[in-house]
Specification:
single chain, Killer Toxin P4, Chain A, 4 domains, five-stranded antiparallel sheet
Length: about 650
């Protein structure tokens, strides 16, 4: 039943993805200062969110109150211009992010399409607060020439927010309204629980607050009982009912999607409970003990004291970097060889599993584009991994620097060499080694560069392998938002094509010289930029300006097109990494036409409006800030592979 439901969810996303714009840009996340120490709070929170998710499947507004060991009230409100499908996608995004406030007993998150709040008292009727109400203004100013003068823009803002306030308080409006006045667009949404009077008072305060943004391009009032936004770019839908005719047939699918999100909350509780256990250190030693005897007799084993001295007792001067799983230090062994030592301090079984997962997966794998694991130590107070030392650190430290520094360090030849090397390394992991391995966290900070700028894929803590007769793994979501494939992020269903998607995002970053920004309100992601320029037949404009046109145009545009192929929404259309290597290295290989990337709004589809769109942040592909969701693999599918779904179309000779 579980597999069938997730399959329907995938089909739902596949056929509706091009129409989806759930507006999940984060406008504000606010956590309370009071915290709880009871271990029963998180289970109550999970139950609260689960019940709330069931109520939001049929309406844009819902509340729920659980009064078990902990008293929790929750409220969620979608903006009424969203379809019910997009409302649920927005709620799922809010529900995934809000647990960052735990163990605080209160938290609020404003996304540009919905609102979610929990607290330890009944706040449903509240509409304004001198403590909780906030206003945010964009960094950039408008171009005054578009509005005749400064007063012209300010006047338009005043009329727009005034009109939208009057619309929202009318009977039958559901507390929602939109308006447009001389190129200024405004949207208001009150929570249904505050009533007409509360809505009016909340929006009056909100309107006054956003007018204080002056000539800023956008302003948002994030109030206790309402949300108000203005912008010089259109960001709302004219009609949220275009998909409503499908809703009745999709309600089962929607319920499953929210149930899938509930698994995240369950895993969150498991991690939280494990962390608070008094006997966690004893469990850690028991977990390590089962591996200690074979490791002591292994050529991979290092003495803790040796590595401690090699790193000058983990001196800050030897520190190379800090990752989600631990710190990395440079060390010099007694024989004079330089190594990189990854220092891990376990506090849950999950970390133990990731440690030995990395050792077992890559200890016998050798490839010029994979960082070589030299050994490990499990004898001391913390566990250590020992890798070959790569002197040039990680790719992101060369790619995301000032333009002058990039010009000196990363010319086109080096970028192409890096892209080709990463592709060859992934192709080896997927098909060239005895084990079929998926990395799960391909991104610029996990690509190390040697003295010749040869790339080496690093950090295999989240990697998974599975048998050749399996079509996929059903696993907990882990990785970095913005690099995770949509089918994996939503369904937790893992194949090699998840790595292909991550590689595609990384290719666009390398060629464009721009980092993906999660929930960015003022910048369009590289994926949106490249897709828009591709559709307007102007792909060369996406290439990093620091290269100063010192690159072969056809070669650069081909690489960008390959990046788009790898980031297509439909899994079956993405090429394998072996095919990617062939496209990158063979001049006699025709590159297929890419289809639309996932979760692009309709505005991005229109070249004339795409360069002005600042509200269409992708649900999946606009990320650079890491959200660690590392959970343990739960099951593998024995469903036989189908050629139609495991490979993209054949590559055609020119």
């Amino acid at each position: 039943m579980h597999f069938s439901a997730l399959t329907w969810l995938f089909l739902f996303l596949l056929f509706h993805v091009s129409h989806s714009d759930p507006r999940i840009s984060k406008a504000g996340l606010f956590c309370g200062t009071n915290t709880t120490k009871t271990s029963k709070y998180v289970p109550s929170f999970v139950q609260e969110m689960e019940n709330l998710s069931q109520r939001i499947t049929t309406a844009p507004f819902a509340t729920y109150h659980v009064n078990l060991s902990s008293c929790i009230y929750a409220l969620t409100q979608c903006h009424r211009d969203l379809s019910q499908t997009d409302c649920l996608l927005c709620f799922a995004a809010a529900r995934t992010t809000l647990p960052r406030c735990l163990p605080s007993v209160s938290g609020r998150i404003f996304l540009d399409g919905c609102f979610l709040r929990y607290d330890n008292y009944n706040f449903y009727k509240e509409y304004v607060s001198p403590v909780l109400d906030n206003v945010t203004c964009s960094i950039a100013n408008v171009s005054v020439s578009d509005y005749r003068n400064e007063n012209g823009f300010l006047t338009s803002v005043g009329y727009a927010v005034g009109n939208v306030t009057r619309t929202a308080v009318r009977a039958g409006s559901g507390g929602f309204g939109t308006a447009e006045v001389a190129g200024v667009y405004a949207l208001a949404q009150c929570w249904e629980s505050v009533g007409k009077y509360g809505c009016q008072k909340c929006l009056e305060k909100a309107a006054k607050a956003v007018k204080g943004c002056g000539l800023k391009r956008e302003g948002r009032s994030l109030n206790t009982g309402c949300y108000l936004r203005y912008s010089n770019q259109k960001f709302f839908s004219d009609d949220g009912s275009d998909e409503e005719s499908h809703v009745s047939g999709l309600r089962i699918t929607i319920a499953i999607s929210l149930a899938t999100a509930a698994f995240i909350m369950v895993f969150l509780f498991a991690a939280y409970a494990s962390y608070t256990r008094i006997k966690k250190m004893k469990e850690e030693r028991n977990n390590l003990a089962q591996f200690s005897i074979p490791m002591e007799n292994s050529c991979l084993s290092f003495k803790y004291e040796t590595l401690e001295k090699a790193t000058d007792y983990f001196s800050d001067s030897k520190k190379l970097g800090q990752g989600g799983a631990g710190s990395v230090y440079m060390g010099t062994l007694p024989n004079g060889n330089s190594v990189a030592v990854k220092r891990l301090i376990f506090n849950t079984r999950q970390w133990v599993d990731e440690f030995f997962n990395e050792v077992n997966l890559i200890s016998k794998i050798q490839h010029k584009n994979l960082v070589k694991l030299l050994g490990c130590s499990i004898e001391g107070p913390e566990s250590l991994l020992v890798y070959e030392y790569v002197p040039n650190k990680s790719l992101d430290q060369f790619l995301f620097v000032t333009e002058n520094e990039k010009t000196k360090l990363l010319n086109w030849e080096k970028r192409l060499k890096i892209i080709n090397g990463i592709a060859e390394g992934l192709a080896y992991l997927h098909e060239g080694s005895e084990k079929r391995i998926i990395h799960r966290d391909i991104k610029s900070s996990n690509i190390l560069l040697d003295q010749d700028f040869t790339p080496k894929i690093a950090d295999f803590g989240l990697a998974r392998n599975f048998a050749a007769d399996k079509s996929h793994l059903s696993t907990g979501v882990a990785g970095t938002l913005g690099y995770m494939a949509p089918e994996y992020l939503v369904r937790g269903q893992l194949t090699e094509k998840a790595d292909v998607y991550s590689f595609g995002v990384l290719v666009l970053e390398i060629v464009c010289g721009r980092r993906n920004n999660l929930y960015s309100q003022d910048h369009i992601s590289p994926l949106q930029t490249v897709w828009t320029l591709y559709r307007s037949n102007n792909l060369v404009e996406a290439v990093d300006s620091s290269l100063k046109e010192e690159f072969p145009v056809e070669e650069a545009t081909n690489v960008l097109q390959i990046g788009l192929l790898c980031t297509q929404a439909e899994v079956a259309l993405r090429p394998s990494m072996a095919q990617v290597v062939l496209m990158l290295t063979s001049k006699n290989c025709k590159i297929p036409i890419p289809h639309q990337p996932p979760f692009m709004s309709n505005n991005v589809m229109k070249p004339e409006s795409s360069t002005r769109s600042h509200s269409t942040n992708s649900f999946i592909a606009n990320a650079a800030r890491k959200m660690e969701l590392s959970y343990t693999s739960t099951e593998s599918s024995s469903m036989p592979s189908s050629d139609g779904h495991s490979r993209s179309g054949e590559l055609l000779p020119k």
